[in-house]
Structures are given as structure tokens and as C-alpha cells.
Amino acid sequence: MADQNLLVKREDVLKLVGARMTWTDGLYEAKGFKGSQQNKKYKAKLLIAKDSANAAAIKNRILEVAKEEWPKDYEKVLAQLKGTDKFCFRDGDAKDTDGFAGNYVLSASNKRRPRLLKANREEILTDDGTLYSGCYVVAHVNIYPYDTDFGKGISCGLQGVQFYRDGEAFSGGRVSSIDEFDEIPQADALSGDNAFI
Tens of pLDDT along 31-42? Predict the structure, then answer.
């Protein structure tokens, strides 16, 4: 499985196979922080199993970029950042949210719309229900450090998301597909027969 976590074409992009979507609210439309109209971004949160090759690849990349950015005190900086809003990779056990236990939570975003694909590589242009909270995906992300007037941090860029396989939907995470409905004969609809069956 580790071979599936190879860097993709560009050296800084990780390919995470089998990550689980937890939040798709900002996947199709850029949103600002707490409804702000400024600094809008496309966003996703991904669950990463703690014992997975994905988790190891992310940890390794975080360590690499931290060493490059803060060569003399990267360990101290990372210790200060872990668990804060300035660190993109958090312990799911610290959150009291269904499904997060035993996982890390990776927060990823991009000012540009990420590429969204179905399993067959057909592009997803609107929210058609293919990507939902609870499904498994292949995610292309890049981990990078920042050091600005507002402080230091480690962030994650969301490059693309491809549907991988279905999973149990989180509450409100999925819309029914048309195939889940039966055709209703017009006579039954008009008479009201079979209601609540």
C-alpha cells in the first residue's frame, strides 16, 4: 500500500489513497472564515487512519518542510503548533465527533477550485452527490510551512479529489441518487394509496 502514496508528478504533492471525506461544505464553492466574504477558499477535511501509509507520508512531509523552513528550531516550532489552528494535521481522538476516533484529521484548502473527479476520471462540475461526507477518496495535497507577521504554521493545499469508494455517510452527508427511488404510477399518486407503507 505504501507505493500508492508516491509523490504525484510534482515533488511537493502527496497522493493519499483511501482518505475519508468528513466535510464537503467548501468543496464546490469557496467560502470565507465564519461567513466572511474575504479570503474565500475551497476546503475539505479528510480522515486519515493513524496506522496508515497516508499518515506516515503526511508526517514525513511535515517534518521535511519544517526542517527546511526552521532548520535550527523545527522541533520546538512543531511542538508549539501541534493541536492549534495553525497546524493542518490534528489528532481525531481530541475531537468529540463520530468517526474521528483512531484517525488524524487533515484540513486542506485552496484559493483556486481543486479538480474534482468521479472514479472514472470524469470531472465533477457541480455537487451531484458523488463526493459526500463519509465517502473515501484519492486526494492530492501539498504540505507547506508559513512564517508571516501573523505567526508560523503548517498548512495543507487541496489540489484535487477523486471518488474512490462509498462509505457510511456522516449525518447529512449524502443526497439520495435517482436510482434509489421507484417510479410511482400516476393512479397511486392521485389516490394517495400506499402512503406510509
Answer: 887 767 778 999
Q: Above 80 in pLDDT, residue 69?
A: yes
> What residue spans define the domains of the chain?
2-191
Question: DSSP 3-state assignment of 178?
Answer: helix
pLDDT at 162: 97
**Of the candidates 85, 165, 171, which has an alpha carbon nearest to the alpha carbon of residue 131?**
165
Class of 2-191 in CATH: mainly beta
pTM for this prediction: 0.80
What is the number of alpha carbons within 13 Å of residue 159 lying toward its C-beta? 16
Q: By C-alpha distance, which of 105, 128, 106 is closest to 116?
A: 128
CA distances from 87 to 54, 68, 161, 181 (A): 17, 16, 21, 43
